[in-house]
Design brief:
Elements: E1 2-4, E2 7-9, E3 12-16, H1 31-40, E4 46-49, H2 61-69, E5 74-78, E6 88-91, H3 104-116, E7 120-124, H4 148-154, E8 159-163, H5 170-179, E9 183-186, H6 193-196, H7 198-211, E10 217-218, H8 228-237, H9 242-248, H10 253-268, H11 282-287
Parallel strand pairs: 3-4, 4-5, 5-6, 6-7, 7-8, 8-9, 9-10
Antiparallel strand pairs: 1-2
């Protein structure tokens, strides 16, 4: 929980990893380190574990163990649909050369999600291998939303949370998201610009708010690449530059609360503590989920 200026923010970190705990891993992480970084110093109330890759699904098996030891704190979005015990899955196309999101194998995967009642599909839309081939067969992993419009239209009951936004082709993503109401934006990779390039971050978040609205954007730290503490503090303090407000509007406290946790809480059915909601009238809040732009 993060509190500032009398406001309480319920925090859901939508994209965290448990890097394999060996010396040759990206970073040796212990259970104690993760719990400390996320919940004790990082303000996070609930974290969504996602595997980092298909060849080394770190975050799934270790993450599953943590969900048992810390009930209510973790959710695992694994690489394979599983009946009865999973609310989210992850699709990573990077290592699957020659395959696209709209290929038949992806359709079979998504059909199985529907069969098992899994509605949250996290899509990796950023490069993780060198060299980056923006226009190759593996384009979705290379910052390209190729196939997203097709599968989002074909599976309207699923929610596609696009991690990293396909950031190098943000406009392509936004055009698809404004047309497909079941497409969401995960802010991992975009958020660190809030300190290093604040105006660029203002333009990124402004474009998302303009095309999608604030109900389909989710906070994600990409831990352990980034620590959630400084991202959350910076986002709560962030103000849209005055000269951009006429175009994008202001980042109000209500908008920040939705992005930092309330949107993901809705997707995953998490209970939000009293005093952490928005100031929207009850009738307006009730419309979220029934409105075609904001599917539940």
């Amino acid at each position: 929980m993060y509190e500032k200026d009398g406001e309480r923010y319920f925090i859901v970190d939508g994209h965290v990893h448990f890097w394999k705990p060996t010396e040759d891993g990206f970073r040796r992480q212990s259970e104690e380190t993760i719990v400390h970084d996320l919940f004790e110093t990082g303000y996070v109330d609930h974290a969504i574990f996602q595997p980092a890759s298909t060849t080394d699904p770190a975050g799934a098996a270790p993450g599953s163990a943590l969900t048992e030891r810390y009930p209510g704190r973790f959710t695992v979005a694994g690489l394979e649909p599983a009946a009865g015990n999973r609310k989210g899955v992850k699709l990573v196309t990077t290592e699957q050369a020659g395959r696209r999101l709209s290929d038949p194998c992806s359709y079979r995967f998504l059909e199985k999600c529907q069969e098992f009642g899994i509605r949250n599909v996290h899509l990796h839309a950023a490069p993780s291998l060198h060299p980056l081939d923006r226009d190759g067969a593996d384009a979705f992993a290379a910052f390209d939303a190729a196939g997203l419009d097709e599968v989002a239209a074909a599976f309207p009951d699923l929610r596609f949370i696009v991690e990293h936004l396909g950031l190098a082709r943000l406009q392509d993503f936004c055009w698809i998201a404004t047309q497909e109401p079941n497409v969401y934006a995960g802010l991992a990779l975009a958020l660190p610009a809030i300190l290093t390039r604040p105006r660029q971050f203002a333009e990124i978040i402004g474009e998302l708010l303009y095309w999608m609205d604030e109900n389909r954007i989710t906070f994600a730290s990409d831990y352990g690449l980034q620590h959630p503490k400084w991202l959350i503090e910076s986002f709560v303090d962030f103000e849209m530059p005055e000269d951009l407000q006429a175009e994008y509007g202001e980042l109000t406290t209500d908008v920040k609360k939705k992005i930092l946790g309330l949107n993901a809480a809705r997707l995953y059915g998490l209970e939000v503590p009293d005093g952490c909601g928005t100031t929207e009238p009850a009738a307006e809040r009730d419309e979220i989920g029934s409105n075609s732009k904001v599917p539940v």
